[in-house]
Structure formats: structure tokens, C-alpha cells
Amino acid sequence: MDSVWFRRFAGPGTGDGTTPQLICFPHAGGAASAYVALSRALAADADVLAVQYPARQDRRKEEPATDLTALARTIADALARDLTPGRPYAFFGHSMGAILAYETARLLAQSAAPAPVRLFLSGRGAPAPEPLHSDLIEGDAELLAAIRRLGGTGQGILDEPELLEMALPALRADYRALGAYRWRPGPPLDLPFTVLVGASDPVVPTEDARGWLGHSTRESRMRVFPGGHFYLDEAVAEVADEVRTSLAAHAAV
User: Fold this and answer.
1) Predicted confidence (pLDDT) at residue 155 exceeds the cutoff of 80
2) Catalytic residue at 216?
3) SS3 148
């Protein structure tokens, strides 16, 4: 895989080129390292690759992306160059990452590249022509208040001026991109979805997440976990089981 865009935090499964791959898309302001725990939990079963967006961690000197559709196209192009025909792969996207996973899958569906076997869409309401109210953020004060509302283990940076200064450019750009994103109507994707959401997510009601099921022609499923927007922090083992079971089922077909 293109090392500019993808990071691996655990061994690549069996290393024989047939292990299913899981391509993970981070949340707004997040980096590839958001998937370290899930990568390790799935190390024996999948080759987990996390997308590294520009303007964070080892790409922090790059300009951040401010257009989600354009970013999805760049990621789709990188994947199309490196995907192995016949090797199953799936996408996992959390929050903003769910939109990027979905848009990347839509672009791949229009190309000759092999399609993912499944989309795992987490912590995000289904796309619609109008932006979610929670995406329409103006100014740093409103942005930081929104981040505090979401909770999660990354809250510590908000109280560390030096860390916050490093994180703000990516956060500003990501929320600008979310506020500008408009879903373009099109046919449902011909692949199954697994929709995951926290029962007490402050910005993603369960019914909004359920709306994803209408964007797939295949039999899909939804799971609600205890916790808020970053339920995954406390449910890594359970989510890994969900991913492992689904990938094993597709590999057996």
C-alpha cells in the first residue's frame, strides 16, 4: 500500500497475501493512530491499514484537506493502484471517517477496481443533501466546545496549549470540510453495511445512524453499543469480534 496514505500498526495477518484487509478511516481531527487498538485486536485475523490524512502526525507539515469528496477521490486512487485482485478487503470509518469510507467506496464502484466486501460505518448519521447541524461550526470557541461535547480519550489535548496548537489546523479543516459536504444522490451501493453507534452518542441519534441501511442494496445490520460518540474506546474487543466474524463470512463465500 502507498506509504504516504496508509499506516500499519500490527503484523499483516498471515502475510501470505490472502488475509483480508481492513482499511480504517479516522474521525475529524483524528490520525491513523486512532486505530492502534483495533489493529492489535485484529492482528491475527486481518491486515489492518489506517488512513493517514494530511496535516497530522508524520504529515503535519502538509496542508490539510478541506473537501471530503476530493479527499475520497485521492484515497480511492491510492487504493486502486495497490489493491490485490481476489483479496477481500473492507472499510471501517468512524464519524467523519464513515463519510470518507462511503464516498471512497462510491468512487471505487465507478471504476474497474475490486470493490470492498463490506462497509463498517460507525458514529455517524446517514448522508443527506443538507449538512448535519453539528457540522456547522463557526470559530475556535464553538469548535472546542463541540469537541468537548463528543468526549473520548483525546480530550487531554484541549488542556495542553502546545498540543492544541498542533491539533487545531487539522480540526478546523476537517470541520470546514464537514460543513461544506453535500451528499450527491446516486444508486445504493451493492455491498453490505454494518452500522455501529453508541447508545448515548450526543450528536448521532440511533435512528439517524439507521438511515445508512437505505444506502445499500444488500442485507445489512446495525449494532448499538453502550457509550457515547467514542464508544469504540471501551468496546474494542466487541467491535473486533464484529469485524472478524463478518470478514470470515465473506472469506468463506
Assistant:
1) no
2) no
3) helix
